[in-house]
Amino acid sequence: MDYIDIFIKNDYIDLKQIAESGQCFRWKKICPGRYFVISAGQAACFFQEKTGIRILCREKDEEYFRRYLDLDTDYGKIIERIDPEDRFLSGAAKMGKGIRILRQNLWEMIISFIISQRNNIPRIMKSIDALCEKLGEQIVFDYEGEHLVGYTFPSPEVIVGADLSEFKFGYREKYIRQTAEDILEGKFDLEEVKDAVDEGKTPEQVKEMLKQLKGVGEKVASCIQLFGLHQLSLFPVDTWIAKVEEIYYNGHFPVERYEGIAGVMQQYLFFRVREEAEKRACLEVKADKNQKEKSEEIRKNVSKKVLKKQEKEEYNLSGKMLYVSDLDGTLLNSDALLNEDVPKRLNALIEQGLCFTVATARTYATVNSIMKDVNLTCPMILMNGVMIYDPVKKSCIHAEIIERDSVEYILKGRKKFGVTGFAYALSPEISEDCSKSGETSVVDSAGRVGKSGRKMATYYEKIATQHMEKFYTERRDLYHKPFSKVEKLEDISGEDIIYFSICYEEEVLRPFYEYLKKDERLNLNFYKDVYGDGLWYLEISHKNASKYYGIQKLRKLLHPAAITGMGDNLNDIPLFKACDRSCAVGNAHKEVKERADYILDTNLNAGVVKFLEKEMK
């Protein structure tokens, strides 16, 4: 075979940055600055030089690898388009300017990103290596003393005929096999998808084609489009990018500003946030903490050990999929109830092994009444992430307490803007139900420790609006929820307050909402009432109290293989960001549907249960 050695002068290519960018899983590091790469059955060695790179490959493969590395794209000009006012992105591009979006094989990318679901990069690479070594064809690369052995990616025919259980793909195995079968049977045409891109079909149209494959939802499709079809307008959002959006972009990166290059921006952000996380981890390991910090850490660890021991023994899903549904507007119908046959259908699925729970803005008193006929055993996310609650022991596992000076700021503001509502606090005593089942520690994110089973008290100073009257009467009479009247809410500022719920017309609440946004320690949910009264809710809690953090807590607590979230309203977007797959019911808010991997039937038609029944087949 004739080999050629090509030098490419380019200031915007860094092999290490590309190899660690999360877009390619088959780059083998031979030594610093040298990689052995197999793609679409072709092999090459890449060498990093000071002013560019060298490509060593067979002469017939030169054009393939030039295109593979996207060498015709000027990434310097792409970086020039970054908003100079966006310091975080500008810094990210400076750090990761050697990243390029590779032009990779579509079939390989589909399977690779199905495998990538709820996986870290080293584990993905290990899984794909094992798959290729066992089922692929051997490639030997010999040139001037280099003797390298690699394997091609197995074809759909090989995948269909193989026993995939040895690779331990878990729930992903059925998606991999079904995808290969669909391609072989002509139900899904790889060339048709590539032709759609060449013909100028919109990214959304192409995405819908990809989502026909089982296991390919919004996030996986976006990755396939960006890295397998080179559609640079795609901006995949994983847990890293979700954190960046939440911290630096008020929950939403300005994708619209970067039309046609948003995917490159995503790679710069992804690179920076992971690099900085690694540096922080190294600094924490090397840091010489003073005695006070050590003592505080010991105190926290001792108090958490009780909880961790309980989690390990009692809350383990053994690698199963966990399904988490919102209630109002999602699982519940327009009367805020379950359809008549839903409890029976859910219980049948739970008996079959379905791991199911709910994430809701409601408290346990109302959830218990609504879901009384469903045999829930998995911990629930209540009050939009304020509390993690065990429905079996009827005890609080975790709660986020609002800091005292934030409480004072809230109460000062509510007087300024003339609004009132309901305040929720944890009382010092243990509830009778929980003391019988045994005591466990409750640790909030600030390290404050309490006992599980603390009662939750709900305070109000006056029934100021017709909606408050309805809220109060319904929960008192239907759900037997206890309320405590105080002369003024300021009287309870010294208690462990976890949540405020306030409901008025939008024009009344919005100024208060804007005022509260100045306190970065608060989490605010401001959204329209799903039951159509024309009113808006403002829910106030600790910054770590959201469905996003609630899902993260369940992930640590239950150890599921992956989590699927289902919702309908804007307060479910944090839920979607934290889950591996997301489903919007047919009646969901437009923005929620846009962020979902799957669109289900409506809540009135029991869309969630229909989806779960299909999943359990």
Automatic annotation (TrEMBL):
Pfam families assigned to the protein according to its UniProt record, in alphabetical order: Hydrolase_3, OGG_N
Catalytic activity entry: 2'-deoxyribonucleotide-(2'-deoxyribose 5'-phosphate)-2'-deoxyribonucleotide-DNA = a 3'-end 2'-deoxyribonucleotide-(2,3-dehydro-2,3-deoxyribose 5'-phosphate)-DNA + a 5'-end 5'-phospho-2'-deoxyribonucleoside-DNA + H(+)
EC id: 4.2.99.18
GO biological processes: base-excision repair; nucleotide-excision repair
Domain of life of the native organism: Bacteria
Classification via Gene3D superfamilies: 3.30.1240.10, 3.30.310.260, HAD superfamily/HAD-like (3.40.50.1000), Helix-hairpin-Helix base-excision DNA repair enzymes (C-terminal) (1.10.1670.10), Hypothetical protein, domain 2 (1.10.340.30)
CDD domains registered for this protein in UniProt: ENDO3c
A GO molecular function held by the record: class I DNA-(apurinic or apyrimidinic site) endonuclease activity
Coiled coil: none
Keyword NADP: no
Keyword line: DNA damage, DNA repair, Glycosidase, Hydrolase, Lyase, Multifunctional enzyme
Family affiliation: Belongs to the type-1 OGG1 family.
UniProt name for this protein: DNA-(apurinic or apyrimidinic site) lyase
Taxonomic source organism: Anaerobutyricum hallii
